Amino acid sequence: xxxxxxxxxxxxxxxxxxxxxxxxxxxxxxxxxxxxxxxxxxxxxxxxxxxxxxxxxxxxxxxxxxxxxxxxxxxxxxxxxxxxxxxxxxxxxxxxxxxxxxxxxxxxxxxxxxxxxxxxxxxxxxxxxxxxxxxxxxxxxxxxxxxxxxx
Length: 151
Hints:
The protein is α/β, with parallel strands linked by helices. The protein has helices at residues 3-15, 43-49, 76-82, 88-95, 106-113, 142-149; strands at residues 19-24, 30-32, 35-36, 57-61, 66-71, 99-102, 119-122, 138-140. A hairpin with a 4-residue loop joins strand 4 and strand 5. Helix 1 runs antiparallel to helix 6.
């Protein structure tokens, strides 16, 4: 795990301590039929996590100074098409997050975490991917963008 990534998360959480912080990996773009364009990870997400695949999300909790990485829960059939994916243990070791969950567990985790906050920090380009349970929190992009730009 790259310790500078964890330091960056801690710096961002210090600069925006009053709300949950949500980051989402870029989505794949369909070209036609079942053919996708070459995938390029969102620069902010790549810088914070080092993850080069779609389907991941990162949620930072400044009050407890913890991080939650959500990884795709792929079936064996899906793995045939996309290849090997990180397991929970591999992701935790590689990325250095406090907690690793499958994307299917996101709703329950967010329901629990949002009780401590009234604000949610996410970038405008990632707001479309917010879990339903976090959409009721007041969103802020500016403060988070400034925190990321200061890294």
